[in-house]
């Protein structure tokens, strides 16, 4: 017996009408009813564990290696406190955001498939457009920044191998970043054809393991340095003002450090998209648990890398705790390889919301276009009854996107400073403002009530921190521009 339906509402109705009939029914193209969710889309199978893997892949970036420098600027008191405060704030607002996936009931209401759609549902179309612009500009910025960061590690692997053969410091081991950027771009072009974030679980799991590995290596190198007693000078307030380091330098470096800590917890812009992969019902509760697991895990690693790194290197802690280290060489090479593999996965996790937004808009704009909407089924060699679905628009659009991001990374190899700026300016609206505003709207919290004042105070505090961090990032950009940034660093 075949049942034909054309949309999600029909599917729900058919489920109710056929509740006690045979379980196998088909809809349209033969997809079983039991394989569809309440909105008529393929059943989501994500779990708390898979969501945690996606989040950790996005959260623990190579930026964790800069945390010893951050602690050095803030000191033993303010540094760890800043990590704990921003970890808690991010968890709190991420929990508010988890309840905005469905509307009006967070457990059984209509789904919001992405962040900007959730903002539009609760705050209106103008805020939705504003959120979309901020979100997608940041996602593109991460694409360029991840390319630059991955290439730095690729070059480090090459130089370690070269030094091993020719001796440490051999000038013939210098090489341009560009070939590595091209290689990284080609890899991302291929992986960008993974259709959606639900299909990235394996890649995210591998990337998560890689992030734990290189973070652990950083910790081990710090412990080894501490054990040998060859440590740098530390203090309660961090780098001290003195010859070669003025009051202004201290202020600017503190601002930059706050920005780096914020960037370390800037992952809310993809949380709704990750939640949309989870099996229902009760996605909000599962997502809150995934947030808790992820943030607790990452905060422990952040604290270990930051504090042990600072204890080892002191006030002279480098911007990357692995930079310039080649002993033991095999361990440093392994760490840099893990960074590259992790960033390959993180690149895809961050870009899937942007890919989906463009493809959804294009599908509606040119709904009769075969180029945009038709999918070709191709058998996978060696896998019986397994097929992949190829869409020509997806191939062209995603490939062009990666190429543009790679070319920009080649032109601006100092893009990490711009990434810090984007992270600082994106942290407040995406991680703080929109979740709080949606929560106030959903709960209908009265203006000037005690809860409203508390939420707006948190809002204002994070806004000030973001402005301060953005100022520090602007100074970093200006300093980079003063040193011929268009020449790739070796």
From TrEMBL:
<dbReference type="Pfam" id="PF01490">
    <property type="entry name" value="Aa_trans"/>
</dbReference>
<keyword id="KW-0029">Amino-acid transport</keyword>
<feature type="transmembrane region" description="Helical">
    <location>
        <begin position="452"/>
        <end position="477"/>
    </location>
</feature>
<dbReference type="GO" id="GO:0006865">
    <property type="term" value="P:amino acid transport"/>
</dbReference>
<keyword id="KW-0472">Membrane</keyword>
<dbReference type="GO" id="GO:0016020">
    <property type="term" value="C:membrane"/>
</dbReference>
<feature type="transmembrane region" description="Helical">
    <location>
        <begin position="202"/>
        <end position="223"/>
    </location>
</feature>
<feature type="transmembrane region" description="Helical">
    <location>
        <begin position="421"/>
        <end position="440"/>
    </location>
</feature>
<feature type="transmembrane region" description="Helical">
    <location>
        <begin position="329"/>
        <end position="350"/>
    </location>
</feature>
<feature type="transmembrane region" description="Helical">
    <location>
        <begin position="81"/>
        <end position="101"/>
    </location>
</feature>
<protein>
    <recommendedName>
        <fullName>Amino acid transporter transmembrane domain-containing protein</fullName>
    </recommendedName>
</protein>
<keyword id="KW-0812">Transmembrane</keyword>
<feature type="transmembrane region" description="Helical">
    <location>
        <begin position="292"/>
        <end position="313"/>
    </location>
</feature>
<keyword id="KW-1133">Transmembrane helix</keyword>
<feature type="transmembrane region" description="Helical">
    <location>
        <begin position="136"/>
        <end position="158"/>
    </location>
</feature>
<feature type="transmembrane region" description="Helical">
    <location>
        <begin position="395"/>
        <end position="415"/>
    </location>
</feature>
<feature type="domain" description="Amino acid transporter transmembrane">
    <location>
        <begin position="44"/>
        <end position="475"/>
    </location>
</feature>
<feature type="transmembrane region" description="Helical">
    <location>
        <begin position="51"/>
        <end position="75"/>
    </location>
</feature>
<feature type="region of interest" description="Disordered">
    <location>
        <begin position="24"/>
        <end position="45"/>
    </location>
</feature>
<dbReference type="InterPro" id="IPR013057">
    <property type="entry name" value="AA_transpt_TM"/>
</dbReference>
<keyword id="KW-0813">Transport</keyword>
């Amino acid at each position: 017996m075949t049942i034909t339906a054309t949309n999600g509402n029909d599917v729900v109705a058919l489920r109710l009408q056929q509740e006690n009939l045979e379980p196998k029914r088909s809809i349209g193209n033969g997809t079983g009813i039991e394989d569809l969710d309440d909105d008529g889309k393929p059943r989501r199978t994500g779990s708390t564990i898979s969501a945690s893997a996606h989040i950790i892949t996005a959260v623990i970036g190579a930026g964790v290696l800069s945390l010893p420098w951050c602690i050095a600027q803030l000191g033993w008191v303010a540094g760890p406190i800043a990590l704990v405060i921003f970890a808690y704030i991010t968890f709190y607002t991420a929990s508010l955001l988890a309840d905005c996936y469905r509307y009006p009931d967070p457990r059984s209401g209509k789904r919001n498939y992405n962040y900007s759609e959730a903002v539009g549902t609760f705050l209106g179309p103008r805020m939705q457009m504003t959120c979309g612009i901020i979100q997608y500009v940041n996602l593109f910025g991460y694409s360029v920044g991840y390319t630059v960061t991955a290439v730095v590690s690729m070059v480090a692997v090459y130089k370690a191998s070269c030094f091993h053969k020719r001796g440490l410091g051999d000038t013939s081991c210098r090489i341009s970043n560009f070939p590595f950027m091209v290689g990284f771009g080609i890899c991302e072009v291929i992986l960008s054809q993974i259709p959606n974030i639900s299909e990235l679980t394996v890649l995210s799991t591998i990337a998560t393991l890689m992030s734990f590995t290189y973070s652990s290596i950083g910790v081990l190198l710090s412990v080894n340095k501490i054990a040998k007693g060859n440590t740098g000078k530390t203090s309660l307030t961090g780098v001290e003002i003195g010859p070669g380091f003025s009051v202004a330098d201290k202020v600017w470096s503190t601002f930059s450090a706050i920005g780096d800590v914020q960037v370390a917890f800037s992952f809310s812009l993809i949380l709704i998209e990750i939640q949309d992969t989870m099996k229902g019902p009760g996605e909000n509760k599962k997502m809150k648990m995934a947030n808790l697991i992820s943030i607790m895990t990452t905060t422990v690693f952040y604290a270990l890398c930051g504090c042990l790194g600072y204890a080892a290197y002191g006030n002279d802690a480098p911007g990357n705790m692995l930079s310039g280290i080649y002993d033991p060489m095999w361990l440093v090479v392994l760490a840099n390889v893990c960074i590259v593999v992790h960033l390959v996965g993180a690149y895809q996790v961050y870009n899937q919301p942007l890919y989906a937004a463009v493809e959804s808009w294009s599908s509606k704009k040119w709904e009769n276009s075969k180029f945009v909407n038709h999918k070709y089924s191709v058998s996978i060699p060696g896998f019986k009854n397994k097929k992949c679905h190829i869409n020509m628009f997806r191939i062209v659009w995603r490939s062009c996107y990666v190429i543009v991001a790679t070319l920009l990374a080649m032109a601006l190899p100092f893009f990490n400073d711009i990434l810090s700026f984007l992270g600082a300016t994106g942290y407040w609206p995406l991680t703080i403002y929109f979740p709080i505003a949606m929560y106030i709207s959903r709960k209908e919290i009265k203006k000037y009530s005690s809860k409203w004042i508390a939420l707006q105070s948190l809002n204002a505090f994070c806004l000030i921190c973001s402005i301060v961090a953005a100022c520090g990032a602007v100074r970093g950009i200006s300093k980079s521009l003063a040193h011929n940034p268009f020449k790739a660093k070796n």
